[in-house]
Amino acid sequence: MKADDISPEGASAIAPADLSAVTVVVCATCRDASGSDSHPRAGAILARNAKLAADGAVRVRTVECLGNCKRRLSAAILRDGCWSYVFGDLDADSGPDLVAGAKLFAGSADGLIPWRGRPDSLKRGLVARIPPLSTLKDIA
């Protein structure tokens, strides 16, 4: 089976050791589309929903700001030595999508989150894909 063939449902079969290499980082200070300053903020609710969906299989952490305010609720998915991903335009209910993306990422042999099987919110919400430092080239 190739990483591109893993569906979000099938991703749960990935070994827990592989999942521990992936971290979901959620901006806890993000506001929802209304711009409400109420607490808990929509970003904190997204983080809580991701943590519940992860059920301990994937690390979910928070940060005060990802600097992606124009795209509202934002999160990143990180894996050491691999590309990192930043997503925006998420909903407070997108926690399971972030976990599904993390599971796809954990099963990826090439260090990329496969497009096929990626939840729609992670397809349309992609803000940036950041390369690992080891792949950067000096300017000649």
UniProtKB/TrEMBL annotation:
Q: Which domain of life is it from?
A: Bacteria
InterPro entries (UniProt xref) = DUF1636
Pfam families found in the cross-reference section? DUF1636
What name goes with this protein? Answer: DUF1636 family protein
